[in-house]
Write a structure and sequence with these properties.
There is one protein chain. This protein is mainly alpha-helical. It contains 3 helices and no strands. Helix 1 (about 1-25) packs across helix 2 and helix 1 (about 1-25) packs across helix 3 (about 45-60).
């Protein structure tokens, strides 16, 4: 179902943005694996991973102030 694919990508992207804001790094693979452990078939294709990597990279480039500052 196309709608569930879009939702899974959106959920993963929201989690990754929060991870970047709080922890200062992102882990796309682990996030996708954890989502699939709760709901099978979430983020399972290469194209979905590629989109997440591209989207989070764009977010990090365009919102550097949202990342935690380093000492």
């Amino acid at each position: 179902n196309t709608g569930s694919v879009r939702r899974s990508i959106l959920v993963a992207l929201c989690i990754l943005i929060e991870q970047a804001r709080i922890e200062g790094y992102v882990d796309v693979f682990t996030t996708a694996r954890e989502l699939r452990s709760q709901r099978p078939r979430m983020v399972e294709y290469f194209s979905q991973y590629a989109f997440l990597y591209d989207a989070i990279a764009y977010y990090l480039r365009t919102h550097p102030a949202s990342l935690p500052s380093t000492p």
